Amino acid sequence: MSIIKKVRGFEPHFGKDCFVADGAVVVGEVTMGDRCTVWFNAVVRGDVHSITIGDDTNIQDGAVIHCTYQKAKTVIGHHVSIAHKAIVHGCTIGNYVLVGMGAIVMDDAEVGDGAVIAAGAIVLAGTKIPPITSRGGIPAKQLKETGPEMREVIERTARNYPMYAQWFKDEVQ
To answer: How far apart are CA 65 and CA 91, in angstroms?
Structure first.
């Protein structure tokens, strides 16, 4: 069973056809767009500031989305994939972005549309990542431009997660 909870008078709001898996936690000042998915043991914790998530965005298993009290809210765009065990904290993520497994994006960072944050990368606080680029390493550094093949992977991943959620919804019926 998932945990969806009101905190400090703020209650999560979900768009149409969202899916929150068993063991996932969504609390506080969280607003999700349509067809978003939050997977097993992921945490979306809007207790200290707001979290806004666009349409068709997936928060995969074990990922943590949080913010900083009275300082840094979190904004995640449309068609974004936050991969397994990634941490997105008090930052802005554009549209059609992939944040790889175990990556960390810290306070006040900005990730442009179409960017890729490689698995295990750490995007330091305040870093501005331009659109359609790939970053990796610790701290994250420019790898290359995001090519058409990778853009297709980003789009396909965002498109597939609502389908995966439907498999679980079908089992319940």
So the answer is: 10
